[in-house]
Design brief:
The protein is mainly β and about 110 residues long. The protein has no helices and 11 strands. The strands form 2 sheets. Strands 2, 4, 5, 6, 9, 10 and 11 form a 7-stranded mixed β-sheet that branches.
């Protein structure tokens, strides 16, 4: 079972930026994904990235969020810019059937 360790969440003002990181315990040769779950909501895909770097984004974050990966470090990143209060959620990293523990992102003034 792959272990995923996330970091980088926190409190940020609207319009601010945060970068999330997720490091896997083993080398990953397939897709990584970031998901989020707001209070009372369902978990939804934010972005994913293939081993070759092909990316896919939810419409709500296109143009604001960027997913990237460093295969040598077994790490995937989510750069989040122009954050909005509706981006507030617990963000989870996913690889295969494995999930990270989640990291809280709160966008508030």
């Amino acid at each position: 079972q792959v272990q995923l360790a996330e970091s980088g969440g926190g409190l940020v003002q609207p319009g601010g930026s945060l970068t999330l990181s997720c490091t896997a315990s083993v080398r990953i040769y397939s897709n990584f994904g970031w998901y989020r779950q707001a209070p009372g909501g369902q978990r939804e895909l934010v972005a994913d990235i293939s081993i070759g770097g092909t990316t896919n984004y939810a419409d709500s974050v296109k143009g604001r969020f960027t997913i990237s990966r460093d295969n040598a470090k077994n790490t995937v990143y989510l750069q989040m810019n122009s954050l909005k209060p509706e981006d507030t959620a617990v963000y989870y990293c996913k690889q295969g059937y494995s999930w990270g523990q989640g990291t809280q992102v709160t966008v508030s003034s």
